[in-house]
Design a protein that fits this description.
The complex is a heterodimer of chains A (297) and B (1116). By secondary structure, chain A is α/β, with parallel strands linked by helices. Helices cover 34% and strands 28% of the residues of chain A. Chain A folds into 2 domains: 3-217, P-loop containing nucleotide triphosphate hydrolases (Rossmann fold, 3-Layer(aba) Sandwich), CATH 3.40.50.300; 223-290, no CATH class. In chain A, a hairpin with a 2-residue loop joins strand 12 (248-254) and strand 13 (257-263). Chain B has 5 domains: 2-280, no CATH class; 300-502, tricorn interacting facor f3 domain (Immunoglobulin-like), CATH 2.60.40.1730; 678-806; 814-926, Immunoglobulin-like; 936-1115, Galactose-binding domain-like (Jelly Rolls), CATH 2.60.120.260. Classes of the chains: A alpha/beta (297), B alpha+beta (1116). Chain A binds chain B through residues 49-53, 68, 70-72, 74-75, 77-90, 94-95, 98-99, 101-104, 106, 132, 144, 147-148, and chain B through 2-3, 6-7, 10-11, 13-14, 17-18, 21-22, 88, 91-104, 249-253.
Amino acid sequence: MSISIRSLNKIYPNGNHALKDITMEIPTGMFGLLGPNGAGKSTLMRILVALMEPTSGEVDVFGYNLLKERKEVRGILGYLPQDFRFFARYKTHEFLDYAARLAGMTNGRQRRQAVDEMLESVGLFDVRERYANRLSGGMKRRLGIAQALIHNPKLIIVDEPTTGLDPEERIRFRNLLAKISEQDVTIILSTHIVGDISSTCNCMALMNRGEIAFFGSPEEMRKEAEGKVWRMQISGDELHLIDQKYPVITTIPSGTGWEIQVVADEIEGYDAEPYPPNLEHAYVYYMEKKLNRWMDA
Amino acid sequence: MRNRLHSIQSVALYESKLLKRSWFYRIFLILAILSLCIFNFVALVWEGNSGLWLMKAIPAMIPYANLLYLNTGQAIIAVFLSSEFLKSDKKLDTSEVFYVHPLSNAEYVIGKIWGNARVFIQLDLLIILLVVIFNLISGVAIDWMAYLGYFLLICIPTLIYIFGLSVSLMLILKSQAVTFVVLLGYIALTLFNLGNKFYHLFDYMAFNLPLVKSTIVGFTNWAIVINHRVMYLLLGVGFICLTIFLFRRLPNSKKASYRWLALSVIFIAVGVGAGYRHVTSFTGAAAKRQLYTEINNRYVNSPKMVVEQYGIDLKQQPGTIASEVEMQGVALEKSSRFTFCLNPGLQVSEVVENGNPLPFTREHQILLVDFERVVEEGDSVRFTMKYEGRVDPDFCYLDIPDEFLEEEYASQGFNIEKEYSFQEENYLLFTPETYWYPRPGTSYSSESPDWQQAYFSHFRLKVTTRDRLKALSQGTMEGEGQEGTGDNVFVYETDFPTPSITLIIGDYEQKSVEVDSTLYSVWYLRGHDYFSDVFEPISDTIPAQIRERRRSLESNYNLDYSFHRLSLVEVPVQFYSYPRTWTQAQEVMQPEMILLPEKGCLIENADVENGVRNEQRWARQRGQEVSDEDAALRVFNRFMGLFQRTESDMSWSSERGAINVTVKANPYFIFPQLYNYRYNVFSSEWSVANRLIELYLQDKSEEATWIRQMNGISNNEKANLLMEQASFKELLADGEHRDLLDNIVSLKANHLFAYAEQNVGYNEFRDSLRNVLQRNEFANLRFESLLDTMGALAGVDLRSPLKAWNYPTPLPVYTLGTPEVLQITNRDQEVFVTKLQITNDSEYDGIINLEIFFGGQSLYDPRAKRKIALDARETKRLVAVWDEVPRSVNVNTLISGNLPSSISFPVSNIIRERNKPIDEEGDFVVQNVSYNIPGEVIVDNEDSALFVLSEPEVVGLLPQWLDQMDKTSFDYSGVSTWRPPLQWTLTTNDRYYGTRVRSAYVIKSGSGNQTATWKVPVPSSGTYDLFYWVHRPDDARRRGGRGRGGGGGARGAAEYHFKVHYDGGAENAYIDLRRSDEGWSLLGTYLFSEDTVQVVLSNDCGLQSVTADAVRIVRR
């Protein structure tokens, strides 16, 4: 196990209980942390990267106690924060160089080489002289991952990396992460976008209101929703009624009415047929049925 | 460790990049370079400059001035930039990616601060490089150590401190805006309010700290300066440690974080300790001075002996002196133990009489020698004393109150450390104030003036100097520098009995010229001869110039300069002297020596090279040619004027817009060379006896009228008001009015001798006073016996008025008529008659001074300047007949309640008459006097029942409150002509109308919304001429005047606009100030019925100001 978390609690000074007694073991490889906004993902991430102290609990990171051996943990860490947009006036390659220096790369020649290679591999070499705040959103995110990787960390923590990216950039970014996870590293990816997880993670946790609602593989999660997803054909008038009754996942216009997918244990009064669930269906199922959170999510 | 440094370096590197890329910094950089380049160009390169001699005279001033200005700028900019870095950390999520790296908080914070600081250090170095280039171009020697020293003393501690303070404050206050406000307030407070308080304790940017470095002795206050700067450095480091502790990122380890807190506490505590040491080093000195004075008080009346003969053998040692003094003393009273005073830093090892050691006791400065037998009064003893040590400068100037000692010694905004003696390895300066050799009695006592007696002695001084340095002292030098031991030996013997001698040792060279068997020398330090070449063209004319100056001085004061030589001696710039209450002589003035600051750096006229250039430039501008000789001669004379001026430069101060001008006594005024080292008037009761005689002999004129006008009151008038409240004795003891003491003493002296002068004549009385003095050369002349002698001579009792000095002085008030001047021509004889009526309007006898001026030089006439006594309620009509046209009649009411006390009547209307008997001359007592003409009514602004002003326009709460704060006991304010007051302001001037108080209200010209109203009662119906009292302000005298730009009224610009309300109607009336004369000016002729007429003056005028004074109606 690369990271083990035991009875982790975080209560903010305003009384918000953001993490409630979280215990889990995160294995090597790509780990996905899924949950709606405000579930406590970022709090957990920030505790894991030693930016924040938990109220109670223990965390071991590759054998180091996170609370006592912060320096060692920080030594093996790469981090891409959620909102990686606002930069001081640094050029792209300077930003990377700065990160490399702070990570302990003292040899100038090696560092310059590493920076160039990294820029090459995230496709930013051509814009290396451009000021980082002039990069596009996707480029910024790639620069973010580049700085997190520049010193070959054992643990990479990525918080909501695909938010705000266009689909093409998002896919590129997922592929990039997948490629990295092939090496012997642990990547913790926090996201509220199910697609990010389904395509890359072999293990995941679903967080809700500061608690772990599900822990396991995406496949296991998907299986939990089998037989709970239905497809039906309805008229335009009915859509409104159904929407109030069941969580509607997709609505596709078809001929005179709509083809919709809903999550429910069973459907009454409508002509519905079971549908094979995907991870997204499973996520909705969890939110709605197990946690009763659909409406306020 | 390497990793740590690497982390710090990395953070610093990128922090500097950020700073250099910020516009704020770039603008500052450009502004700093530009302004300092202009400054240096003007100060060092541009030939047309003036007023910057100090910069060129002392090479260290160049880096000092530049770094001082730069540092002040960057200390303010640094606040903005350094708190920026934490703000940006908060805002930029991206900086969190740096936080997750393993570097410690300390490395991060230190890196950030170092990154910022090094940008400023680079800027400083760049500026220094530029300054060095200017320095090279200017030809002024480069003082490399000063560049390094000022950089380390000024810039580094300031930067570290302000960075530490602002970032830690930012973390504590958590708001950038609040931090800015707090810090900028703090900076303003330290710059403007606290700068020189508590001995510059709060002066973190070293803006006010005295840091001028002498070329001769360098810094003299090393210990204090370094302690002060280390204090801020430590506090800065402490704040940085605190920042590391407070930094909002989880520390790598908690323990390490608390270590920083502990370090911070330690650094701040040591810094505060250094601050405490700083203050106590001064308060300790004050306590020491208090102790010395108390000891003096204890011994001031103990038995003394006058030392007739001194034989001093002094050896200069590194930092100390060793001395053996042989003294031949004559007991002033019968005793076995006699009191001497020697600087407490000097340790006496033995006192020997005829080979037998004498017992002696030492209590700080006091040395009591026990002769083990009774020495009768007048008996003489011969004994020897050995002592060694270092002079304690805190012993000097015990008479000067602490607040004066703390006052800044500044020139052109640069503060200079005050030193009273020097004892460096290569330079030594002891004035008598240090008591570097044993002197009879005590030094300053606050309880009895007995210590002031001057004991005239004969001195033989043998000095052995180090490293072939030259020794200077008073008297004739016997055979220069006998080579032998490797040191040089100098022997001086005084030519006359002298109250005290001075010792100066340094690497001196001499330039001299002998005129009429007096040797005039300039003693300058090697390499400081910057003047010889300039005066080379006039070397032949200089002796004649000197002769002429000496002649005019001697005849001016009717005293002789009797020394065989006069030396101008260059001394370090830090040498400072204070004016004393009992004598004109300051320590810069020594018998036959005048001590000038190095290269005359504080005396603008000493910049002779630039002076010659300026002369030639000015001549060219006028389209004239001036030869090198003429230019050099003018410069020489301008410089020599320094010794003839009684006052030094003016100093200006401003408080809430009101400007005050103060004029300080000129320490280089040469009078003491004529008087003080020969004569001493002494009184056991009156400590200022000598000063009284000095000031009487100098007969100083009043300060210039424009200064009085700006200040609103003259110093003599202030002195009068003080004397009315407190007795002369109390005022002498009162330190608060020290600056007015000369005026008080001078008024008292004038008053004391006034009756005698009236009887004998102005010049005649002074001549006899000088004769009495000369008979008492080189001795203490008792004040009381001097008064008896002088009184007998003039037939006046001069002793009994002294009794009144124990009580407040009642002030008589006088009403002055307007002088009349008649020109009477009878056949071929033509004479001028002056008539003036003066009334003493009080219950107190008084005396006034009357002076009549004629055009051009006239022969001495005792009637032209004389005192006139006026008893209580007495009126005198003063009639005099002259052969020449009187130009003005000046009355000084001396000790009186009149404002102004000095009034000048220019003679404008001369009444011409032919074939008429000439009036009888004399002072005639007149009975039943009236100054009023029948049918005439005058309403003056002083007449509160009949004179009304409009309400001020805007009266906010704050201005009201400030006005209340500003209220002084004195009702009349100063008025500046170029910045008239915005509200009606009461001021006095001898050109205004008034009887005792010549006052008027002045206001800045405006739209006409401010008015002054005179309500004139009309005694009976009839035709009246209406007059207004005109005082023409400066801008009405100039042709064309100055319009108010745009709103200059419908009529011509220089007019006062009146409205005359009578009989239910109103008429406009105008006075053109450019055309009318001063005094009563006709507004118009009106038919008034028996009623009250209102005359309203508005402030609608094209001149700068409007003056509301007095209105008069005269029945036709």
